[in-house]
Structures are given as C-alpha cells and as structure tokens.
Give the backbone structure.
Amino acid sequence: MSIDKSGKWWIGSGSEDIKEYLETYSAGGYKSSDFRSAKCTCGSDIFYLFADDDEGCAKRTCISCGMSHFICDSEEY
Ligand SMILES: [Zn+2]
C-alpha cells in the first residue's frame, strides 16, 4: 500500500492507506490513536464519507444499501 501525494489530492491504493492519512491529518491537533476497517451489515466495505472539520464529526454512508453510521462520538455533535 502506498499513497500518491504528487497531485492536489492524496490518492491511496487500499483502505490501509487511510490510517497513514489520518495520522498525518491529526498530528497537529486531536491525534487519532486507532484505525479499524469498517464493514456494513450488508457486507459492503465501500462508503461515502461526510466530514465536518468545524464540528469535528463524521458520518459514513454505505454505497450499496445507503445505511448511514456516525463515526465514534460524532452523533453528539
Ligand atoms: Zn450496506
């Protein structure tokens, strides 16, 4: 797994690249300490990610069945 950082956006080659991205993204603030791959109850592991930098919350929505799930304590915000 590796991340192509040559363009405007980082492009990963697999889901494990998300861990490196989150560690870099959070290094200057509220540091991430854990990473787990997510899997929907329908079996899919591909999601849309909705994130709000200002509120510090995120939600994932399964592209297969449309089920949404708040990440960690995001629902409180
Ligand atoms: Zn699903």
Summary: Helices lie at 17-25. The two ends are 33 Å apart (CA to CA). The longest strand covers residues 47-52.
